Amino acid sequence: MKPQVILNLFGGMEAGRVACERAGIPIKNYLSSEIDPYAIKIAKKNFPDIIQLGDVREVLKFWYHNNFPKVDLLMGGSPCQGFSFAGKQLNFDDPRSKLFFKFVDVLDKLKPKYFLLENVRMKKESQDVI
């Protein structure tokens, strides 16, 4: 397998990077969109080569402005608080839940070879939309 360009939206502390390495996926470039400063700090400490892109709402502007190569794998797990049975189950009425559509927008525009979206167990109505 040739080295891959990987983009992780909502990267957190980069469990996605760990999963890629454990799966034996060779990495050419690993880019991440995350805004939590503590998660970014841990990700940078563990993986100093990660290119941090910041807010998911700005990823496409950043991508086109910097002429990055084609994405092989797009990963992400948009905020789950609105969907989780442990929360208030506001679903798409929770503004954080609407960030899911940013994942879809990036997926549609960048057209990666593969994508992986993860989230929590949720109401069937929300699952059907996703």
What does the average pLDDT come to?
81
Helix-residue proportion? 25-40%
The main sheet comes to: 5 strands, parallel
Residue stretches low in confidence (pLDDT < 50, at least 5 long) are none
Distance between the termini: 30 Å
Given the structure, what is the number of helices? 5
Question: Hey, roughly how much beta strand do the residues contain?
Answer: 15-25%
- How would you describe the shape? globular
The strands making up the biggest β-sheet line up spatially as 3-2-1-4-5
Radius of gyration: 15 Å
Number of strands: 5
Class computed from helices, strands and strand pairing: alpha/beta
- Secondary-structure element order, as H and E? EHEHEHEHEH
How would you characterize the overall build of this protein?
The chain has about 130 residues and is of the alpha/beta class. The chain has helices spanning about 15-20, 35-45, 60-65, 100-110, 125-130, and strands at about 5-10, 25-35, 50, 75, 115. The chain has a five-stranded parallel beta sheet with strand order 3-2-1-4-5, with helices on one face. Strand 4 (about 75), helix 4 and strand 5 (about 115) form a beta-alpha-beta unit. The model has no long low-confidence stretch (mean pLDDT about 80).
Offer a concise description of the structure:
The chain is α/β, with parallel strands linked by helices and 130 residues long.
